[in-house]
Amino acid sequence: DMGNFYSAARDPIFFAHHGNIDCLWHVWRGPRPSNTDFTDPDWLDATFLFYDEEARLVRVRVRDCLDTAALRYTYQDVGLPWLNARPAKASSAVTPAPATTSTLPAKLDRTIRVTVTRPRVSRSRREKEEEEEVLVVEGVEIADHFNKFVKFDVLVNEPDGGEDGTPATATGYCAGSFAYTPHMVRPGEMGKGPVKTVARF
C-alpha cells in the first residue's frame, strides 16, 4: 500500500512508479521557459523525515530534492518525438453535433453535449506557445466515491456518430479523459457525502 509511508518502499512497483513520475517532471521542465518548479516557500520548505543509509533520522526539505545533479543522478538524453505530435485533423466537412442541454449540472448517465464559448479564437502560433488553452470542467461530483471507479471522456466538436468508426478517444476530437479511483476510507467517513472536484483538459 503506497499510502502507508512506513512500508511503501517495500512495494515492488514503488520505485518504478516514482522514478517515472520524477522523469516526467524532468522532461516537462525542458520545452518551455514557463515550465518551472513552484516558488511557493511553503512548498519549498516543506520537510519530510527519512532514515538515511546509516539508519540515521534526517530531515529533508523539498527544495533539497529539485536538482537531480545534486542527488547524484540524471536522466539519459533521448529524443522526444511526441513533443510536437498532434492528433489527425478532423474532417472540415463534418458538423459538430448540436448541444443536448444548456442546463448544468447534469447527470452523466448519457452523452451530454454543451456549447462552450472560447474566450479567444484565431490565436497566432506564438500566442499558443506562450499561453496554453485549457478546458476546465468544474463541479464534478462523485456520489459513491468509496466503491465505484468513475471515468468519462471529453470531446470537442465531435460530429454525431463519430467519424469512420474510429474510437472517439483516438481522434482529434478528444480533449482528454477524467478517471477517479475509489480510495481507502476510515470508519466514520462513509457518511460525509459526495466528493467534488475539477477536471482540466
Automatic annotation (TrEMBL):
This is Polyphenol oxidase 1. Residues 11-22 form the Tyrosinase copper-binding domain. It comes from the Eukaryota. The keyword Coiled coil does not apply. Its cofactor is Cu(2+). The gene is Ppo1.2a. Belongs to the tyrosinase family. PROSITE patterns: TYROSINASE_2. GO terms for molecular function: catechol oxidase activity; metal ion binding. SUPFAM superfamilies: Di-copper centre-containing domain (SSF48056). Keywords: Copper, Disulfide bond, Metal-binding, Oxidoreductase, Thioether bond. It comes from Hordeum chilense. The keyword Transcription does not apply.
